[in-house]
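1st attempt posting a full record on here, be nice pls
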Amino acid sequence: MVRLTRTRSVAFADWWMRAEKKLLKGFHTYCILGAWTLWKHRNACVFGGASPDLQATIQAFKDEANLWKFAGAKGLSSLCLELGGNRV
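the predicted structure (as tokens):
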């Protein structure tokens, strides 16, 4: 498993240039999932009257990421993303 948390010795741009294709695919999938989760939460706030809730959005991201892994999203399992001290 590869950690995406930044270390002092490796800048994000350096990691991006050297990352394996499999890792980049997983990272791109996380980016798409993040945008999708934010969009769904935004719509719930705008059209459903929900209040903005960062913790609920983060939890929704984690839950959806696990569902995507079970559904066969390739690359997610090779990444270790930490959110709020918890791994996704």
